[in-house]
């Protein structure tokens, strides 16, 4: 397949996912302004970080006054899932030039990964298949920036009673529920929920990072015990 | 000073995306690391969900008057059945609005 058709396929296959991404971006824009970031800061977070979950964590921690190193540290943990995506993608992208790998890395998100990894692993490998990820990535990037702007500018005129920010936990519920496909993951979910309730009053908003790490470690120990590796 | 935090978070986020595609990282990470990475999304998103549903003004609101609980339960059910973010959003928000309307 040619560069153009790979690129086009990436764009087109990514488009339907924007139905979920767009409301999320709007909700993020609204939230950013609500917690006291400026319009510029809210928008540039979408450019500089360009990762929905990390940006939500950023705004949440920013709103409840967290030490800076804790914000950065928590975002670091949140981002670890990118490493998993990168490892899966590296099999298909490792031979590309440094320039390509630098550009494509920026575009790795949950949604672009989902679409392009499916293409890489299920369809025929071709010389220009990285253009598929370029297409899905740019599509997501564009809709993320536009929806952020929409949230920033229409946010103040939407009645608060509509609770549009609630789109964020609802999206997370959908993501978590769909990704629980083993007993261990169900256990990690329950542990993480319990820890976050028990640990809510830890100083510095340590509860996100602590609940996450403890549930992962316990999940791993139990998995190791069961499988014996 | 918020800008250094924004840039540091950005650099860190980019690093987690670029490192696996760089030649620096070993090809095969230990098995438990790979396994652990699969839990990250669930482990991180769950506390945020709990926080947004149950906590308001730094206090737990676990009562029949918290419409967010009903919306979350509906969302979990719909997500299990439909596996679709969009449908989950629509049902979750609708339930939230209906209960807000009934309770208030």
Question: Keywords, please?
Answer:
heterodimer; A: 229 residues; mainly alpha; 12 helices; 0% strand; B: 104 residues; two-stranded antiparallel ribbon; 2 strands; 72% helix; 4% strand; elongated
List the helices and strands and how they pair.
The complex is a heterodimer of chains A (229) and B (104).
Chain A (H helix, E strand, L loop, with lengths): L2 H12 L3 H17 L4 H10 L3 H12 L4 H11 L1 H14 L4 H9 L3 H13 L7 H25 L12 H13 L3 H16 L8 H21 L2
Helix pairs in contact in A: 1-9, 2-3, 2-4, 2-9, 3-9, 4-5, 5-12, 6-8, 8-9, 11-12
Chain B lengths: L2 H16 L12 H24 E2 L2 E2 L6 H16 L2 H19 L1
Antiparallel strand pairs in B: 1-2
Q: Give the low-pLDDT segments of chain B.
A: none
What's the total number of strands of chain B?
A: 2
Number of helices, where a helix is a run of at least 4 consecutive DSSP H or I residues of chain B:
4
Give the N-terminus to C-terminus distance of chain B in angstroms.
40 Å
Biggest sheet layout of chain A: none
Share of residues in helices of chain A: over 70%
* Radius of gyration from the alpha-carbon trace of chain B, in angstroms: 19 Å
* Cα Rg of chain A: 19 Å
- What ranges of chain A have pLDDT less than 50 throughout 5 or more consecutive residues? none
Assembly type of the chains comes to: heterodimer
The main sheet of chain B orders its strands as 1-2
How many strands, which pairing sense, and closed or not: the largest β-sheet of chain B? 2 strands, antiparallel
Biggest interface pair, residues each?
A-B, 87 and 65 residues
Number of strands of chain A: 0
Amount of beta strand of chain A: under 5%
Count of discrete alpha- or pi-helical segments spanning 4 or more residues of chain A: 12
End-to-end separation of chain A: 42 Å
Query: Mean of residue pLDDT of chain B?
Result: 87
């Amino acid at each position: 397949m040619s560069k153009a058709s790979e690129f086009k396929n990436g764009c087109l296959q990514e488009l339907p996912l924007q139905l979920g991404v767009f409301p999320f971006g709007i909700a993020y824009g609204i939230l950013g302004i609500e917690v006291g970031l400026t319009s510029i800061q809210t928008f540039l977070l979408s450019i500089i970080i360009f990762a929905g979950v990390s940006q939500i964590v950023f705004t949440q921690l920013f709103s409840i006054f967290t030490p800076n190193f804790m914000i950065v540290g928590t975002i670091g943990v949140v981002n670890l899932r990118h490493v998993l995506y990168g490892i899966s993608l590296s099999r298909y992208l490792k031979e590309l030039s440094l320039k390509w790998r630098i550009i494509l890395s920026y575009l790795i998100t949950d949604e672009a990964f989902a679409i392009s990894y499916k293409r890489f692993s299920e369809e025929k490998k071709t010389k220009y298949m990285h253009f598929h990820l370029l297409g899905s990535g740019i599509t997501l990037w564009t809709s993320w920036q536009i929806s952020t702007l929409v949230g920033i500018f229409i946010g103040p005129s939407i009645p608060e009673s509509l609770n549009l920010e609630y789109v964020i936990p609802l999206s997370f519920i959908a993501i978590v529920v769909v990704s629980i496909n083993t007993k261990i993951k169900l256990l990690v979910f329950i542990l993480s929920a319990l820890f976050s309730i028990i640990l809510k009053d830890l100083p510095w908003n340590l509860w996100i990072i602590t609940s996450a790490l403890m549930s992962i470690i316990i999940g791993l120990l139990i998995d190791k015990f069961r499988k014996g590796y | 000073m918020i800008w250094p935090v924004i840039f540091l978070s950005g650099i860190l986020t980019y690093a987690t995306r670029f490192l696996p595609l760089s030649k620096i990282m070993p090809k095969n990470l230990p098995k438990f690391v790979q396994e652990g990475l699969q839990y990250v999304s669930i482990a991180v998103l769950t506390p945020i969900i709990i926080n947004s549903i149950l906590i308001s003004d730094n206090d737990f609101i676990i009562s029949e008057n918290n419409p967010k609980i009903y919306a979350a339960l509906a969302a979990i059910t719909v997500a299990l059945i439909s596996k679709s973010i969009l449908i989950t959003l629509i049902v979750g928000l609708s339930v939230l609005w209906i209960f807000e309307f009934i309770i208030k």
